[in-house]
Amino acid sequence: MARDIFISYSQPDRACAYELTHRLEAEGFTVWIAPRDVSPAAEWAAEIIEAISAAKVMVLVFSQSSNSSPQVRREVERAVHKDLRVLPFRIEDVLPSKSLEYFLSSQHWLDGFPLPRAPHYERLCVCLRQWLGDTVTQPALYTTAPALPPAPTSAAAPIGGAVIHGTRISAEQLREIETRLAHILGPIAGVLVGRAAAVATDFAELERRLAAELDSPEDQRRFLHARQ
Question: How many domains is the chain partitioned into structurally?
């Protein structure tokens, strides 16, 4: 039976995956999750492939454990092959391994930390309603700018409206540019912004440095033309 959402997770994250499933179903979504929805005596791999093919969105419970899980990697690969949209829900502050990054680099991300997770589940539900209500245009996930990573230890690049190499770059500018980059690269954007802010002499240089992190000319154009 077709479901709105396929939940991909690794076994150590089972409790979170099932908590998320219960929240989504309470909000009216139909959800497929293993092993609950695997038919008795069914062939496991065939059931998963069929469920992925029938879903509208895959929600990936992303953690250090799922990052190294061959099963999760195969599920994500299958979803991308089927042109199924994947929404990584990051429950730990980790970046994707190279094998997963290949499939997730163009995806949007949502963070499910710090605890408690209830507010993060609510944001996820809002995003999924938008995604499932519009099969053509994928909306931006951040209705407000995501939190910045901790400020670099270097005194040259404090964050929060402080002076960076003699030039004042506001917290709002940093949040805005990180949001733009996150829509292309995902959560690694915070790391890149912090690193570039430590050496940039002004906001224009910061923007140029971050654009240079994008391999595709199209992605560079999207990043630079998305100024708010």
Answer: 2
